Each structure stands twice: as C-alpha cells, then as structure tokens.
Amino acid sequence: MYKGKIDKLINEINKIARLKRISYKLENIYEEYDEFIEDYYFMEWLRISQDGITQIEELNNMLELFEQTLEELEIAIYNAEDKVDIICNSILAYNKKELGDYINDFELYNDNYIKDTIMNFIENNMYEIDEDYLFLELEKLLEGGIGQHE
User: Fold this and answer.
1) Residue 149 has pLDDT above 50, yes or no
2) Could you give the angle at the alpha carbon of 87 between the alpha carbons of 128 and 16, nearest 5°?
3) Tell me: the pLDDT tens digits for 23-77?
4) Over the range 77-99, which residues count as b (16 or more CB within 10 Å of their CB) and which as e?
5) Helix, strand and coil percent figures for the chain, each rounded to 5
6) CA dihedral 69, 71, 74, 79 (to 10 degrees)
7) Is the dihedral of CA 89, 92, 95, 100 positive or negative?
8) DSSP class of 127
9) How far apart are CA 8 and CA 40, in angstroms?
10) Which residue, among 15, 46, 6, has the nearest Cα to 128 in the 3D structure?
11) Count of alpha carbons within 13 Å of 93, Cβ hemisphere only?
12) Which of 46, 49, 52, 75 is deepest in the core (most CB within 10 A)?
C-alpha cells in the first residue's frame, strides 16, 4: 500500500514539473510573440497591405490562445498540487513509520512541516524525479539543508 502512494506522489510531482516547464516555455513564447506582433504591426504599417487586417486578427487570436493555454496550465498545476496534498495526508496518516526507514529522524518532524517541505520542493522543482531522489531531497530539506543545490 505504501509503495503505491509514493508512486502516486511521484507521478503528481512529475506532472507538476512537466506542466511548469510547459508553462515556462509558453510564457517565453508569449512574450516573444508579443514583440513579434509589434514588429508585424510596424511592417504592415510600412507596407499597407490589402490583407493586413485579416492577418492581424489571426495574430491577435493566437495571442488569446496563448493566454487561455497559460490559464489552463495554471489550473492543472493547482489541481495536481491539491492531489499532492491529499496523497501527503494519506501517507502521513498511515505510513509515517515506514517513511522513517528511508529518511533519518523522520518521526521527529510534525506533519505540517513535512507537507510544507514537500510543497516547497514541488514549487521549486522543474525536473522529473524518482523515489530515491525524492527521499534524498526530502531528507536534506527537512534537516534544513538546501536540497537540490548541494
């Protein structure tokens, strides 16, 4: 039972990491696209082309699509973080002792501190992980270490 919960936790962490990477890339494209549109407007103003209005509308529609996609990614990340919270509660309620086999002095930390540490790790993580890495990072972070950057 414990292994399945950890797998679910890792899957959600990896899902959040992927969504955050996609969001980051899309935000960069969005910013560059905005500059591209400004340049395009300038070029159209210089050329005064006949079909410029239709092309400008298409560009603006693409910008709206970027905005909608970014909002959907934000919602997906929020929902995945909620799942992580539920999984953490379940693990801490029923499997905290087993986690102590993987993380030194795990039983010394209160549940809220552990959950906050996991959520902070997720917030700062952009990479997919495995079980060993999760336990290693969690142990460092719980002990007050800086985790990923050591």
Assistant:
1) no
2) 30
3) 999 888 888 877 777 777 766 655 555 555 556 677 777 778 888 999 999 999 9
4) beebeeebeebbeebbeeeeeeb
5) 85, 0, 15
6) -100
7) positive
8) S
9) 46
10) 15
11) 7
12) 52
**Which two structure tokens, joined as six digits, stand for 128?**
């997919």
Structure-token pair, residue 149? 């950057």
CB under 8 A, 24+ apart: contacts of 77-83: 77/16, 77/19, 77/20, 77/23, 80/12, 80/15, 80/16, 80/19, 81/16, 81/119, 81/122, 83/8, 83/12
Under 8 Å between Cβ of 114 and 88: yes
Give the span between the Cα atoms of 150 and 148, in whole angstroms.
Answer: 6
Cα angle 110, 133, 115; round to 5: 25
pLDDT-derived band of residue 145, with 50, 70 and 90 as boundaries? low
CB atoms within 10 A of CB 43: 11
